[in-house]
Design a protein that fits this description.
The protein is of the alpha+beta class. The protein is built from 7 helices and 7 strands, in the order ααααβαββαββαββ.
């Protein structure tokens, strides 16, 4: 009986871990829309067109690429568009022992990148603005790497995303870019990181306005984002 209990426990734990995979996030998004549709008594057309699906196409290959809800549900573990945390840009460590390089390589080498999803946690009972302190132990070549880092919680991240309290950095590719100042010359492809700000997602959606890093107010199609 004890062996059976252990097997069942392992099975349950495996399913709990599996439940946090990205395709499950997509599935939850689709089911949530179906529930909303039932409550409304019909489709919400603009959301129906943007909900997306579950096949590999909707995973996308970069941020703000396809414009579907299930794409965002997948890519939230691929890019941290608010704070930019990743293996190449880890949070500031507040305490550590062992090799920092080994820790960043191992934790950032998780699939998806562990640093990207580190801001997905929130101890709600402790208040809205208590940041999350994470501890990680990773043993590499017999050396125990113990690291502590403190990052914004999921509520703070959601609030920043909703109300524009951060730098939105987009990697833009400009095709057919002239090589000479007068507009002449052979065309080339240029890449640039451009920083944008908006007042809120609602304002951006309704009024199509944003502030770019050059300080120019312009109109933009929501389809771009």
């Amino acid at each position: 009986m004890k062996k059976v209990s252990i097997i069942v426990l392992v099975f349950i734990m495996a399913n709990i871990v599996f439940a946090h995979r990205q395709h499950v996030h997509q599935y939850i998004s689709v089911q949530a829309y179906k529930l909303l549709k039932m409550q409304l008594g019909g489709d919400l057309r603009i959301m129906k067109d943007k909900i997306g699906g579950l096949d590999s196409y909707y995973a996308g290959s970069g941020p703000f690429q396809l414009g579907f809800i299930t794409t965002g549900a997948w890519r939230e573990d691929e890019e941290d568009v608010v704070y930019g945390y990743s293996k190449s840009n880890p949070p500031t460590l507040t305490s550590f022992s062992g090799s920092v390089y080994d820790f960043i390589a191992a934790f950032g080498g998780l699939s998806p990148d562990g640093f990207v999803s580190s801001t997905h946690f929130w101890y709600a009972d402790e208040g809205d603005n208590l940041q999350t302190t994470m501890r990680a132990n990773i043993i590499v070549l017999g050396i125990d790497n113990v690291m502590l880092f403190t990052i914004p919680n999921a509520y703070q991240k959601m609030t920043a995303f909703a109300y524009g309290g951060y730098d939105l950095n987009l990697d833009l590719i400009l095709y057919g870019f002239p090589t000479n100042a007068d507009g002449s010359g052979a065309c080339a492809t240029q890449r640039a990181i451009v920083t944008f700000h908006y007042n809120s997602l609602i304002d951006l959606y309704k009024n199509k306005k944003y502030l770019c890093n050059e300080g120019n107010l312009a109109n933009r199609s929501t389809n771009y984002l």
